[in-house]
Amino acid sequence: MFLRRKCRHKDGKAHFYWSLVETYRTSSGPRQRTVAYLGDMDEAGRLGVKDAAEGHDGQQGEIFGGAEPEWVEVNIRRVRAERCRRFGDAWMALEIMKKLGLPELFEVLIPKTHEKIRWSTLGQVLIVSRFCEASSELFIAEQFYRQSALADLFGVSEGDIYGNRLYRALDKLVEQKDKIQEHLKDRLGTLFDLKYDILLYDVTSTYFEGEAEANLKAARGYSRDNRPDCKQVCIGLVVTKEGFPFGYEIFEGNKHDSKTVETIIEKMESLYGKSDRIWIMDRGMVSPDNLELLSSEGRRYIIGTPKAQLRKFEKELLSGDWRKVHDGVEVKLCPSPEGTTEVFILCRSTDRQKKEEAIHNRFVTRIEEGVKRLQKSCTDGRVKKVSIVERRIGRLLERNQRAASLFDTEVKELDGVVKIAWTVKNNLSDWSRISEGCYLLRSNVTDWQPEDLWTAYIQLTKAEEAFRLQKHDLELRPVWHQLEHRVNAHILVCFIAYVLWKTFGRMCKNAGLGDEPRKVIQLLKAMTLVDVILPTRKGIDIRLQCVSKQDKDLAWMLQKLQLIPPERLTKEYKL
After folding, report:
1. What are 398-422's pLDDT values in tens digits?
2. Which H or E run includes 387?
3. Residue 509: count of CB within 10 angstroms of its CB
4. How far are the Cα atoms of 62, 118, 119, 167, 181 from residue 106, in angstroms, in the given order?
C-alpha cells in the first residue's frame, strides 16, 4: 500500500487530498485500487497513515477494522443510494461453492489462457446463476448478471459478460466433467461422512426445443415429460441413499432403461473403483444380461420386478406370515422359484392397494357406461348389425385394458334388435383383485431381513426427487442448445447446481432447520447490495457498498447456520 496525493479543481480553486492505494495482482497483470480517501492531512497525519499502511508498530489492523471509528463530515441533504441489486442468494451460493472447494478446483482444471477473464471465474458465474435464477446463458448476460451482485462478488464488470463468452465457458467446463464428479464425491464424503455403500440408479429424459439435428443422441422415445413430439436425451443418475449425486451419464433419447445399466456401472467403477456396494434399481432395469452383470464380480443388488412375476407367488400372496414394516406396509421373504441363490420380497401396501382399486373401479365404470351407451344406440335402431357392436365393444375394452379382463360380454340379435349382455367378475378369486397393492422385489443380498431390503429399495425415491428438483427448480428442461457438447455442458451445470442445493439442504438439516432449503433461499433473495453515496464537506463522494440488514427470521436462520453475511462488501469478500 502507498499514499497518493490527488488534486481536484472546484470553483476555480485547487483542492488537494490524500488517498490510500493498494496494489494487487490479477491474471492480466498488476492493478491498483483505492482503499480509502483520507482528505487533506498535515505531515504528522500523513506519516502516521504511511506507517500504518506499511504495518509498522502493529497499526495496520487499526486502520482496517480496528476499534477506532472513522469520522467524516457529510452533507446529509445529498446522501443517496444507487444500484440496488440481489445479493443474499448469490453470496450464499458462492459460500457453498467455497465449502465444496470448487473455485480452487476450477483454477487447477481449467487452463489459464490470454483471455481477459479466467474461464474458471466464468464457470462459477454459470453455476451460481443456475442456482439463483435458473435460465439461459443469454438471460444471465442480459438481465440476471446486472440485477445481481455477481459483478461485485467476482470483480468482473457487466460489459465483460455476454452470451458468446458464457457459451465458450460451457465448453471449457464440460471437458472436466469426470474430474469434477470425482472431486465432488470425495468432498461430499468428507463433509457429511457419506459411506457410498448403497447406490440408487434411475433414468429420466429431457426434451429439446428445436430439431437438434447436430446432436446425434437426440431422438424420439418414451418421454417422462409427456412430450413425445419432441426429441430428447436420457439421463442416468446415480445418487446415494441420502440423495447426494454420485455421478451421471447421458444416453440416446430412444435407449431403453435396461440398456443403460452396463454403461453406468462400468463408468462409476472406472471413476471410483469397485467396492462392496449395493445397487438399487427399479423394474425397468431388469433383463437377464443385467442380472448376470449385477451378480458377477461380487456386486450386490436390490431390484424391482415386473408385476407379471407375481403370478409365480400367488400361493404366498394368499397365505399368512407377513411381516409389518410400518402401518400400511407388509413384506414377506420368499425363495427363488428357480432354485437360485436369489431371494424375492413380496410387498403389500394399503395405500397402493386403495389407489389401484380406485383405478380399476374407474376403468370398470368407463366400460359399463360405454356398453350402456352402445345398448341404447341398438335399442334406438341406430346400430343394427351384431358385427358392428362387437367391434365397438372390442375398441372399448382395448381403451380400458386395466379392467377388460373383468368383463364377460355376449352380443346377439333378438327380434331384429341387437342385445348386449355383460357381467362383471368382482370377487376375490380374480387375480387383478388379489394382486392390488402388491409388488415384487428381487435381490442377491441374502443376509438382510425383508424389512431392511424393502427400506433400502424404497430409498429409490431419492433419485426421483433429484430429477424433480433439477427439472423444476433448476430448469433442466427444456433444452434449447442444439450442439451435443453444449447440451452436455448444460446438464453438467444443472448437476453441479443440484450438488449445491443438496449441500445447503444438509447444512440446514444439521442446523435444525429441516432438509428443505427453499424457505431460506427465498428469504435470502430479499437481501440486497446497495451503493450508498456520502458527499463530504471537502467535495469528495464516499461510495460504500452496503448489504441490507436481514429480517428477524433470516437473521436467526443464518445464526443457526453459522454464516455471517458482511455488513459492507469490502475486498475480502471479493474474488
Report:
1. 998 888 888 888 898 888 888 888 8
2. helix 386-399
3. 15
4. 35, 10, 8, 17, 12
Cα distance between residue 22 and residue 29, in whole Å: 14
Q: What pLDDT is recorded for position 8?
A: 75
Query: What is the pLDDT averaged over residues 295-302?
Result: 90
Task: Count Cβ atoms within 10 A of the Cβ of residue 223 and give its class: 0-12 exposed, 13-18 middle, 19 or more buried.
Answer: middle
- Alpha carbon distance 519, 525 (integer Å): 10
Rounded to the nearest angstrom, the gap between the alpha carbon of residue 172 and the centroid of all alpha carbons in its chain is 21
Confidence of residue 333 (pLDDT cuts 50, 70, 90): very high
Please provide residue 197's backbone torsions phi and psi, each rounded to the nearest 5 degrees.
-90, -20
Question: Which pTM does this prediction carry?
Answer: 0.80
Cα dihedral sign, 421-424-430-432 = positive
CA distance linking residue 234 with residue 477, whole number of Å: 12
Cell 389407489, residue located:
355
**How would you label 40-69 residue by residue, b for 16+ Cβ within 10 Å and e otherwise?**
ebeeeeeebbeebbeeeeeeeeebeeeeee
- Domain limits of the chain? 1-71, 306-447
For residue 208, give the nearest of 470, 482, 472, 483 by alpha carbon. Answer: 482
Residues 460-470 pLDDT 10s: 988 888 888 88
Question: Closest Cα to residue 434, out of 319, 305, 328?
Answer: 319
How many residues can be counted in the chain?
A: 575
Contacts of 236 (CB under 8 A, 6+ apart): 201, 202, 203, 248, 249, 250, 251, 260, 263, 264
Per-residue pLDDT band at 33 (split at 50, 70, 90):
confident
Other Cβ atoms within 10 Å of 314 Cβ, number: 12
pLDDT at 309 exceeding the cut of 60? yes
